[in-house]
Amino acid sequence: MTREEFDQFCGSLKASDNVVQWGNSSVWKVGGKIFAICSIWGEGEEQKISFKCSDLAYEVLCEQDGIVPAPYLARAKWVQLVDAAAMTDEDIRLHITDAYDIIRAKLTKAQRSELGL
Hints:
Keywords: DNA-binding. One of its GO terms (molecular function) is DNA binding. This is MmcQ/YjbR family DNA-binding protein. By secondary structure, the chain is an alpha+beta fold. It has helices at about 5-10, 55-60, 90-105, 110-115, and strands at about 15-20, 25-30, 35-40, 45-50, 65-70, 80. The chain has a six-stranded antiparallel beta sheet. β3 and β4 form a beta hairpin. The radius of gyration is 14 Å and the shape is globular.
């Protein structure tokens, strides 16, 4: 998945916002809380996608080749795809949707109402 495809998909999720920060990372948020990031982190300077996971998904995904606990965010159950072949684009979209849903559910009722969620 290219960064453009990543941005297009994340932008299709209701009330999502994009901010470019942390050295040109594409950071996607809902209600001001991050659910997915496309960045160039660490050695090799290749594009990497990171997203929030459920506890179970975190455990399962971290066992797969090409997927690691996300730097700085692993304690919050985030993973990072360090190999573009680690997951299909369809699976990336499914996991990003799950990440969005996890973060959206943590918003207050007032925030969800304000955002039309």
